[in-house]
Every structure is written in structure tokens, then in C-alpha cells.
Amino acid sequence: MIDIHTHLIPNVDDGADSEEETICLAKAAIEEGIHHTILTPHHNLNWFKNEKDKVINLTKKVEEILEEANVPLNVSPSQEIRMNEEFIDELLAGNYLPLDKEGKYYLVEFSWGDFPSFGKDYLQQMLDHDIIPIIAHPERQKAFLEDANLLKELIDMGCLSQVTATSIVGGYSERVRQAAHDMMQANLIHVIASDAHNVTERPFNFASALKVLEEEYSSDYKEYLVSNAEKIIHSQQIETFKK
């Protein structure tokens, strides 16, 4: 399995706080059945500035750390990019890292508060350039929790969205858990990821989430959310789930 949203790079954001934590997270990923994680440190979020070249170099460092620790986890560089007013200019200038080598998919995060006034316009500009935004964890964001139609509008435009494994199993709150399931039932979710930050408070919870998907939805739907991660990393087209 591939996890498209993780915070394993040490000491760059609110994720891993040491090389030891990075190794622990990598071992946990392997135990969950994950063989490849995309490293997506926060960028443009508060004081977290993790520019393209910096992330590429730090990903190579993580590869070295894992090789020395004999942890067989593949990693690749990307970013969880907070949308701000400079977002679209920076994106089109090539200053951000996509999730895939061809630059088709980018992981986009919005403010935990209000949805930005320029949000829909910037997303449409991405789509007009054949770039597909993947909206990170909408089930945990105030704007989507308070406006059930907002995510549908963005998906109808052509955006995709990523649900967090911990949300599915109720690891944040009942409201977030319910929102995640409402979004999945409405066919507004396209891929599952961990958003793992550490092994205690924000772990992977991948196996537990997949069990819930198997029991409460179907093996086909579980496979859809899992296999789309591989499609993303290989720049392949993602279709809507056929119920």
C-alpha cells in the first residue's frame, strides 16, 4: 500500500521530532502493510516553510536514515501546501512539489477556519492547467463541516479529496468521524491516507480504518480508496467509485 500524506521528516513541522521518531514511524508503516510513503511536510502553514529543494534534500536524508536502520520503506518527496494568496503564482512557477513525477496531483490544505475567498478561483486555475488538487482531510476542516455542499461543489469542479484513516475509526471526535462517513457515503472521497505525525497521538491507523471500510462498506470500496494512491503516484486518472 501507498500512503500519500505523512509527516516523517524530522524537525521540520509538527510531525516527527527526531530521527528516532522517523524510524519508529517507518517501522509502524511497515507493520500496517504500507510499503511507500510520500513525505508531505507542511508548507506555508504558520511558521512552517518547507520549500521544494529543502524537502527533496531532506527526503534523501530520510532514505539514508531508514537504510541505516534496515527499514524497507520507500519514500518520495512532496508537500502539504496551505493555500494562501501567493499559492497559484508559486504553483505555476514550479515552486511546489507534486505527489507524482509528472506534476498532475498536488496535496492542498485549507485554513482550519474559513474557506478562502480566492479558493474556488485558484482551484479552477489548477484544473484549467490540467493539475488536479487533492484536498487534504476535508472531514476535519471547519468550512466543510459547516457547509455540507462546499466539498461537493469542489468535487463537481474536478477536485479530489483525501480522508484520514484516524477520522474513519473515530480517533479525533465523533463529529469528525461522522463527517468522514457522510462524505464517503456521498461519494466525495477518493483516497485514504494516514496523515501520520507520530506513533502515539497521531499514528497511522491504516489497518483499523481498512477493517472498518471492509465491514461497513465493501471490499470493492476499500480497494478503491487504497488503489487510488497508487494511481496518484503514477499520474493515472482517477474515476468516481461505481456503487
TrEMBL record:
Signal peptide: none annotated. It catalyses: O-phospho-L-tyrosyl-[protein] + H2O = L-tyrosyl-[protein] + phosphate. InterPro entries: Caps_polysacc_synth_CpsB/CapC, Pol/histidinol_Pase-like. Its EC number is 3.1.3.48. Keywords: Hydrolase, Protein phosphatase. Belongs to the metallo-dependent hydrolases superfamily. CpsB/CapC family. This is Tyrosine-protein phosphatase. The lineage of its organism: Bacteria, Bacillati, Bacillota, Bacilli, Lactobacillales.
